[in-house]
Amino acid sequence: MSEYETQAQEFLTKTNTTIKADFVGYKKHFVDDKEKRDVYKVTFTRGERSFFVMFGQSLNCSGKFRYLDHVNNDFKELKKVSGFHSLKQAQCSINKEQKPVSAYDVLTCLQKSDVGSFKDFCSDFGYDDDSLKAHKTYKLVVEEYKNVLTLWSDEEIDLLQEIQ
Fold this sequence. Notes:
Blueprint: H1 3-14, E1 18-27, E2 37-46, E3 49-56, H2 68-73, H3 75-82, H4 87-94, H5 103-109, H6 118-125, H7 132-151, H8 154-161
Antiparallel strand pairs: 1-2, 2-3
């Protein structure tokens, strides 16, 4: 386990928080995505409280089903080229590069501070303040931060911010 993942696990243990990542699919995650990536529904739970975020794995680490569409659609052709005897064998062999999402990956991406007004958000993050897409993103970021506040105290959020 890397030093970074250890920091994330220590935070979860210290705050008695569990994390569960469910694979949703290999698809486009962000509005402007040009390529597909592994997408997960990640749920944080602490006592009776919980919230989830949709998390798109980096393109470099995605691949759980990177070639699955190709394999399903063109298995006969793939079998000729690769020598695979079954669809399952092809899927297992093809998907070796995939890296599962980690606690560190998700914790470092959570919104851990107030972004202020919509104008502040746009100015700080380079969005056009006359954009419906930017306003939708702003609302999602604000909602995520509210969820973070409901699960952890200010002191714990300070610890969360230290994970690097």
